[in-house]
Specification:
The chain is built from no helices and twelve strands. By secondary structure, the protein is mostly beta strands.
Length: 170
């Protein structure tokens, strides 16, 4: 079993909705090799921890509320090369046990300094199902800035969508 940390980062004033993201296990980036090149290569029993970082280049970060945060997985059919006995069949809806295709990481508040703040979800799903999935993370936020006399939070949606695989680890 490994603890895999997914760190997602955004600047409250960035133009795009894209999250900067990275998975790390045992102090190293999580990457595939060989036939898994280009994939996020998880192993059975990996536990996924989520850390969200908000930054402000303009030093005007007051608070970010995470209204919702979901990991969404779409199974990809097994190929003849990776699983000849089940080619054309689909794995479970999620790599995370009995979960559906949507896993909620919950809600929270990011607090810190005016330039950087962090929140860590206490939901930690475990990889138990073998297969390959398209994976997305979507997060709705309410951003409050210092100096905003109207105290009107800006609601933004951020996300990313790589492809992942859970294998036996051999």
């Amino acid at each position: 079993m490994r603890n895999v940390t997914l760190t997602v980062t955004f600047d409250i004033d960035q133009d795009s909705q894209l999250l900067q993201w990275g998975f790390e296990a045992d102090g190293k980036p999580l990457t595939g090799e060989g036939v898994e090149t280009g994939l996020l290569a998880f192993k059975r029993q990996d536990k996924i921890e989520l850390v969200v970082q908000a930054k402000s280049k303009n030093n005007n970060l007051k608070q970010v509320k995470i209204e919702d945060c979901y990991m969404i997985t779409t199974p990809r059919a097994f190929t003849a090369r990776e699983n000849p006995e089940h080619a054309g069949e689909f794995p479970e809806p999620s790599p995370f046990g009995d979960h559906s295709a949507v896993v909620s990481f919950g809600q929270g508040t990011i607090e810190g300094t005016v330039s950087k703040a962090q929140w860590q979800s206490d939901v930690i799903p475990e990889c138990t199902n073998l297969g390959r999935w398209d994976m997305s993370l979507i997060m709705t936020t309410a951003i409050s800035r210092t100096g905003d006399s109207a105290c009107h939070p800006e609601r933004r949606v951020f996300g990313f969508d790589p492809e992942c695989e859970v294998g036996s680890g051999v």
